[in-house]
Write a structure and sequence with these properties.
By secondary structure, the chain is an alpha+beta fold. About 45% of the residues lie in helices and about 20% in strands. The chain has a 5-stranded mixed β-sheet. The chain is globular.
Amino acid sequence: MSKRPTPRGDHLRQALAQEAARIMAEHGIGDFLLAKRKAAQRFGVEDGAVLPKNTEIEAALAQYQRLFDGDSHPESLHAQRHAALAAMRRLNEFEPRLVGAVLRGTATRHAQVQLHLFADCAESVVMKLIDLGVAHEVTENRVRLDPARVRAYPGVRFEIEQQPIEATVFPPEGIRQAPVSPVDGRPMRRASASEVEALLAAP
């Protein structure tokens, strides 16, 4: 039977979540584990049992953004979502979906816009970018499909409206099953272009 966290343990866990959130916001770190480790190092914590969950860090990040980025965060998030929509419209034939922190609303100003595209081969996405005159870099992204499976998929990096975009290319059937979220381990939320339009139109 596991022990219940002590009040001191709860306070330390909360402090670690807040510090990890600050690190992510101020230093542009998007990796929860890395931010968590840096926070633990700063506090001199070696007991992994008191480290916060990713969901706790994301909640602390949202709170940090409300407190310290009250004006700039909504503006940068709107710019990221606007760039996402522009990219999705240009790559419409690949049924693009917005995922990640830009969709969830917790993206820092340093965050990349993350898209999922669906095509028989990644080369068709590359050719489309070439046709559009969009400079790009071919990449490979490791994606967790479920708790037991991690798989590498081709991807492309490019910029739209001065916003960095990272697109992962899945086979067409990949649209039916979203990978798991690094935040809560549940299937990632994916938003279509029309859903992103609705986000941009919301007050």
